Amino acid sequence: MRLDLDFVRAQFPAFQEPGLRNRVHAENAGGSFPCRQVIWRLHRFYRERKVQPGFDYAASRTAQDEMDEARWRLAPMLGIEVGELHFGPSTTANAYVMANAVRQMLRGEGRPGVVVVTDQDHEASGEHWRRLAGDGAEVREWRMRDGSLRLEDLRPLLEGADVLTFPHVSDVVGEVNDAAAICAATRRAGAMTVVDGVNAAPHGLPNVRKLGADVYLFSAHKTFGPHQGLMAVGKEAASRLPSQGQGDDAIQPGIRFAPAGADHAQVAACAGIADYLDALYAHHEKAGRDGAGRAGVIGGWMREQEVGAMTPVLDWASGRNDVRLLGPPGAKGRVPTMAFEMPKAGAAYVAPLAALGVMAAGQGLHARRTLRALGIDPAHGVLRISFAHYTSEADGARVAQALDAVA
Q1: Which end of the chain has fewer CB within 10 Å, C or N?
Q2: End-to-end C-alpha distance for the chain, whole angstroms
């Protein structure tokens, strides 16, 4: 089934804004437009419920109820229990918290431990794990081959390992890693997995339980919501890792790994993500499914739309010998995050593209280690074009035409 793009775009007020209306948002990997349901909930919370939640008076009870709603609405869509969903100020902060929890776990067990990282990791999350070397941990690196992480290269690294952290999708390579197979191999080796899903979740919320991830992290501001980090922590992992909470929060599910209070209004507004996905499902298909089932169907619709949008850009790249596309050459096996090594520095193309109505990104993009592994000087960087399911085929064609003009 094809998405009704008119309906989709009607859910995003940004498309009606004069400063954005005639432009293509091609930097969704950095942050998506928020849907109107999120904006409305955030506005309502700040107007009507901006009090300390959880006390016995009406505004406080309502505030707490709306924060709780975000948990019980989103958790089923992720295939997890409500108590397994945590909120934090960002995915970077959540990754820091988890790395600290692992540090304390290893210290409590009286051993330095072994941590496996990759050279596809986003610096904002991967560097927290590399710093465990300062506590004596052995840090092993799962290295790409031709931009890809290969399972056969991982298996030897897992011997005696405690934790593997890896990206579900790299924010420059764009290739979808087989997270389920990676998590299964890691579990067989007796290690824990921490999956960075920041660049995967915007293209369809994952079923974390089916993936088999012990910890899965992603960002609400890239999944049409406010600037919050969401983190699914499975019961087994939660039982092993020391709590990072304060006082009573140290023992409560859902906040055991939240060392500071989350932004109450933004947590409540995250329920708007579920509002939007449910509205999208109801508009296209009336048959009922559970939360994870709806999310899975919607992910398929998103994928179909994104393939149509990215194909003109991929075709443009394949027709040039002076441009290098990182990651898979076609739509198969990738998300619509496309990074290009260009003749000039990546950042040099941002302003010319903006003059043609295309909002893109360029530079090292917090992926210096990945770029070096691919033979690219981070100072030269890349130009990145990234779409979402609200990107039309016409937008994709317009971006390809603009790229041709500036290149």
Answers
A1: N
A2: 36
